[in-house]
Design brief:
By secondary structure, the chain is of the alpha/beta class. It has helices at 2-6, 54-61, 71-85, 104-111, 149-159, 183-186, 196-206; strands at 13-14, 24-30, 33-38, 44-46, 93-97, 115-119, 134-140, 160-169, 192-193, 209-214, 217-221. It has one domain (2-221): Rossmann fold. The two termini are 32 Å apart.
Length: 225
């Protein structure tokens, strides 16, 4: 897929790394980087050929210091935790996917009576949790880092039990006029940007429902069989 996206077609379109449609056109060039916009799902993504190397990415991730005891950080995560907890009945089994070095959200959900496993490709790389099934999966400030979002969402679908919840938090991209100066774009590890409409489109692809309880938070529900 990477080669297909990196090579411009005769129609000036790329394949979308988020929804798989071949309908992404050049949105803008910023500081030598090319960003593409999918007309089907409205995702915006950096040309894969211009991403950081794995070593450069990991060096930046190791600068993150997310302390589970930090009340300001907990308040930030409560934007997702509070509406998710309203939809869960403890004890339920969850996975904090991309939890980073300080799994504060997992601590908050555990304190509410749930059982939460951890996975992060750098800080908690044990793949065993990826073979299990869950009542809920959380993914906060992570999906903007995905190199292959379509594959990651398919993985979530496989890991979610029927009736399960996928809870996402990322800064929604809304204003093209200020995209170049947007702080979220300026983080070089952020390579894909979602609108609320993008997440609703992803949910429809898998037959899920999608609720946006507040800006930058999406709660997707996998129906029961």
């Amino acid at each position: 897929m990477k080669g297909m996206i990196s090579q411009l077609s005769h129609e000036g379109q790329h394949g979308c790394i988020v929804c798989g449609s071949f309908s992404a056109g050049l949105l803008t060039n910023v500081e030598g980087n090319s960003y593409w916009r999918c007309r089907a799902c409205q995702a915006t993504f950096l040309d894969p050929a211009q991403r950081l190397s794995s070593e450069e990415e990991h060096a930046r991730y190791r600068q993150h210091h997310n302390d589970p005891a930090d009340e300001k950080y907990r308040h930030f995560l409560s934007k997702l935790a509070d509406p998710l907890l309203q939809r869960l009945s403890p004890p339920e089994k969850g996975l904090d996917y991309g939890c980073g070095p300080g799994p504060a959200l997992a601590c908050m959900l555990s304190e509410a009576g749930h059982r939460v496993s951890l996975y992060d490709p750098l800080f908690f790389p044990d793949p065993e949790p990826l073979e299990d099934l869950y009542d809920f999966i959380t993914c906060t400030e992570t999906i903007e880092h995905f190199h292959r979002p379509a594959d990651e969402f398919a993985r979530f679908d496989r890991m979610l039990r029927p009736g399960g919840w996928l809870a996402l938090m990322t800064s929604f991209q809304t204003d093209d006029d200020h995209f170049a100066s947007w702080h979220y774009r300026r983080d070089p590890t952020h390579v894909v940007f979602y609108r609320a409409a993008t997440l609703c489109h992803i949910a429809r692809q898998f037959g899920w429902s999608c609720d946006i309880p507040l800006k930058d938070v999406a709660l997707m529900h996998k129906p029961r069989n």
